[in-house]
Design brief:
Blueprint lengths: L1 E2 L20 E3 L21 E3 L21 E3 L20 E3 L20 E3 L20 E3 L20 E3 L12 H6 L3 E3 L1
Parallel strand pairs: 1-2, 2-3, 3-4, 4-5, 5-6, 6-7, 7-8, 8-9
Amino acid sequence: MLIVANNKLHALPEELGSLRQLRMLDAGHNLIAGLPHSFARLTQLTNYLYLHDNRLRTLNDSVFENFIHLRYLNLGDNPLRELPASLGALVNLEELRLENIGLKTLPGFLSNLSALDELTLRNNRLASLPDSFEKLQRLRHLDLRGNRFTAFPAVVRAMPTLRKLDLRWNELRRLPAWLDELRTRGCRVLP
C-alpha cells in the first residue's frame, strides 16, 4: 500500500512503476496533472486506486488496460470530461466513482464492467444513459445526482439488482409508470 494523499504533489515519479507488487495506491487530494509512463506497469493494483481531487485533464487511452484485477477506482473531482477506452477493461471493478469530472455523455464501453456494484456519476452534465447499461446486471447503487436528466433513464428498469437509484437535483419532468415496479423489487428511488 502506498499513500501519498494530501501532499500538494504536482506529479508522481517515474520510479513508481518499479513498485510491481503494489496493490493499493492513494494519490488523492494533490495537484497531479498527469500520470507517469511507468504507471501502466502497476499490474498488481487490485484493491484500490484513488486519484480523486487532482488536476487530471486527460488520461492515455491505454492507461488501465493492464489493471484487470482492480476492484475500486476513484477519478472524481478531476477536469477529465472524457474517459480512456481502457477503462472498459476493468472487468473486476466493483466500485467506480466519476463525480464532478465534466462528463456530458457516457461511453458504451462502461457496460463491459460486469462486476460493477456501485457507480457514482454525481455532478456531471449527463442527460441520458447508454442503452448498453442494461448489461450492468450486478449494479446495486447508481448515483446520478446533480446532472441534467429531465426524464428517468429507462435502462435502469432492466437492472435486476438495483437497490438504490439517486436522481436528486435533476430537473425531472415526470415520474414513469414503471417506477413502482423498481420499488417493489426493493430499490430505493430518490427522485
